[in-house]
Design goal:
Radius of gyration: 19 Å
Number of strands: 9
Number of domains: 1
CATH topology: Rossmann fold
Strand order of the largest sheet: 5-4-3-6-7-8-9
CATH class: Alpha Beta
Oligomer: single chain
Distance between the termini: 66 Å
């Protein structure tokens, strides 16, 4: 039946874009409207990026059905991709624009970096788990991102060779804010990071640096995977 219908469409010279549209487009639109805009995120470029990036390509194939649900998902190696609202909120909170150079600590699946790359000039992202970093690099290449730069290693010390950054986004929770990350913020820069004990309720913190002073704002409770460090000798 479907073959006959498709044949008739071609014979009549009618091209209906619905036959070729990304089947996830509607789910992304609903995700942005229901999960993000309704909760108060209004930063236009963040909303555009959330509508653009194919989230289902950043989760394991068997989880793609759930990619646009309002929840985090496992991506392997005891790591997760945050729920869409958290990704959007953290992105909007740093008020990114096209001139920004942003550091991300905790590449994970690569989804947060992809969202940022749709908005800012350059994204530098660090992942301590080699397998995850390599998979993310492959996704970035397949999606045509040329402004994302990756590194495998301990993100506690940031990326000093490329500092300072306009903003830093941390996607795993350390027990305290790493001082090197604060040091690598530009004057007027913003750091958003979950802080707190492992596998317990943490606080999402927004840290700003202005006139040489650091201001910390506790936003709301969250649960992130622990910040993983390299083991000492």
């Amino acid at each position: 039946m479907y073959r006959i219908l498709f044949f008739l469409i071609l014979v009549n010279g009618i091209i209906d874009n619905r036959f070729f549209q990304d089947p996830y487009t509607g789910l992304r639109e609903r995700m942005v409207h229901d999960q993000i805009e309704r909760r108060g995120v209004s930063h236009k470029e963040t909303l555009r990026a959330m509508r653009t990036v194919p989230r289902h390509l950043y989760v394991p194939e068997q989880m793609q059905t759930y990619a646009y649900d309002d929840r985090p998902l496992a991506i392997g190696n005891s790591q997760t991709i945050s729920q869409p609202y958290i990704v959007a909120f953290m992105t909007a909170s740093i008020e990114p624009d096209a001139s920004f150079r942003v550091l991300e600590v905790g590449t994970g699946s690569g989804y947060q970096a992809a969202i940022l790359s749709e908005i800012v000039s350059e994204v530098y992202t660090i992942e301590i788990i080699p397998e995850l970093s390599k998979k993310a690099q492959k996704r970035f290449s397949e999606q045509g991102y040329t402004n994302i730069f990756t590194r495998i290693g301990d993100g506690y010390g940031g990326w000093p060779e490329e500092a300072p950054f306009d903003a830093i986004v941390v996607t795993a929770a350390p027990p305290e804010v790493p001082q090197p990350l604060i040091d690598q913020l530009k004057e007027g820069g913003t750091l958003i990071i979950p802080v707190g004990p492992r596998y317990q309720v943490q606080s999402l913190q927004l840290i700003t640096k202005k006139n040489g002073k650091v201001k910390t704002q506790n936003l709301f409770p969250v649960r992130f995977v622990p910040f993983t460090r390299e083991e000492g000798p």
